[in-house]
Amino acid sequence: MKRKYFAALLAMGLAGGAYAQSSVTLWGRVGGGVEYMSNIKTGANTSGSKLAEGSQWGTSIWGMKGTEDLGGGNQAQFWLEGAFASDTGNQGGGKLFQRGAWVALKNADYGMLRLGQGNTINNYIWRFDPFLLEDYSASTFTNYRNGNKLANGIRYESPNFGGFEFGAQLNLGESPDGFRRGPEDSVLSNIGMSYGVTVAYVQPTWEVRALYDEVNSNNGRLDNLFIASRELFLGAKAQITPRLMAQVGWAHYTAPDTAPGLSRVANHVWTGLTYDVTPRLHAIGAVYMMKVGKGQWTSDHDGEGRGTMFSLGGMYDLSKRTFLYATVSYVKNSANANFSVRPTAPGYGDPVTGNGNSPAAGGSQLGAYAGIMHNF
């Protein structure tokens, strides 16, 4: 009886909280598709291909968001966002709200101050990637390093001042023995303190943006190019005609605390076009290139090499909320590189079985997927 009584009180409290908000929205998306990948390293001298089902265009997500008008141009906002795998139903990222759990105050003249778990300042990169930082995109060569979502965050976003915007973010490490280090329970993310800044000039038909960020390991070091490192990004996009958009991006990664003999520098560049064949049919093409500086390949560090990926894709809108998608990509690697069409953890992984998706060193790979996405 006590449990039932407590549950009833909790439900009343939640309902009262929702009632107090000016606006509360349940939202999300669910995707599903089929993927084919070739030339996957399966053993010392063997390779194979695979078929998989999932949401390759983008993670399936669900969330709640709300705003309350505080008067005087002020708002209170909250955001809760979780990820799940539509093919298995499993929760993504090891957290209920891995993608976002924050509260914020926003003023029309002074900007927004946000506190909590969420995307970091470098998530703006998706605006300059024709394939939106999904699978087979600008994330392919970086292990999603250019789309981090981290805990303990403090973020400020300015309003638009005649086209100019800026922002800054600090994610606290919360360690008792060094502010750059991570807490003892950060095994899942392996991340300590991080920070970043961005500045942009935004117009209705074009945008240019620069950003800098630094993500430390939970040991407080910059020791892996695509996990704990510094990132400098420059990007531009332009709506050339009502139907044609062009995007270009460059990212420079450095990890000065990396052990001797391992790569400490990498450069990533891409460009692409999106063309609206009809109001419903959108064609996308892009080329991505990653060059990793001098150093050995190990199980957890990418070494010297170059990967180039060519991607073609399309989307067809069945309605305002539902669309079909299809993408095909081809990766060509230099002699020592083993980049996959899919984002993978740094390094070769197991020297015999590989790391699950990558070809053997110097090998190429073809990948393709198609499916459906519904937004609610």
- Can you say what the CATH homologous superfamily is? Porin
> What is the tally of helical segments?
1
Query: What's the story with the biggest beta sheet?
Result: 16 strands, antiparallel, barrel
Estimated radius of gyration: 22 Å
Beta-strand proportion: over 45%
Main location: membrane
Protein name: Outer membrane porin protein
Membrane topology: Multi-pass membrane protein
Subunit structure: Homotrimer.
Describe what you observe in this structure:
With 376 residues, this protein is mostly beta strands. It has one domain: Porin. Helix content is 5%, strand content 51%. The protein has one helix at residues 2-20; strands at 23-43, 46-54, 60-71, 74-84, 100-107, 111-119, 149-157, 164-171, 191-203, 206-217, 230-239, 244-254, 265-276, 281-292, 305-317, 322-333, 365-375. It has a 16-stranded antiparallel barrel. A hairpin with a 2-residue loop joins strand 3 (60-71) and strand 4. The longest helix is centred in the N-terminal third of the chain and has 19 residues, at 2-20. The protein is globular and about 70 Å long. It starts with a helix and ends with a strand.
